[in-house]
Fold L,D-transpeptidase.
Amino acid sequence: MSTDCTTSSASTLTRRSLVLGIPLVAAACVSPGGGPAGPWRAMSYAEMYGPVVEGQYRIPAIDTTTINPAFLRSEVSWTGPEAAGTIVVDPKARYAYLVQPGGKALRYGVGVGREGFAWNGNARVGAKREWPKWFPPKEMIEREPRLEPYREGMDPGIQNPLGARALYLYEGQKDTLYRLHGTNEPKSIGTAASSGCIRLFNQDIIDLYARVEMNAPVVVRA
């Protein structure tokens, strides 16, 4: 499904190894920094984006040879004024950053809202959900009548547009209806294809979710 929100074998990564970055192979590595989930040591892209099994849910591996490497998870220098723990989304560059101490940030490739559906502003993480249920807003159903069967929600799963995790953006106590979430369309990362929400690879949203605290500030640049 191409819509969006707005409103274990030896070769399979466990959730713990994915989130904490426990190394299995050292080749072709990136070296992201630490965060609330603990230090993240060097991992290969094959490890970082390998298959994930969480109970009944199965996330397939991402063929990173088909992805622009600029949109794969990495550690970068950070000179912005935002405090450590802040999420900064740069829709034009198609990146989300989690600011770290010491002038560093973890950078994730994202897909953003297509023209007419983008959102920007300051918010906070008002809720966190693992394998969330998806409720298309009534405006979306009006635009896309094929979504009518999901008016009462789509059950969690790999076909759910919110993917494995969702961070819900609030302005004060008001839900903006915008999310940072996983996606069942990995090739959409780096594009403007969503209905306003910020989508990440499922493997990346699992990592970001584990590192982000409730009420963490979120800045979505214009």
Residues 2 and 185 are 7 Å apart (CA to CA).
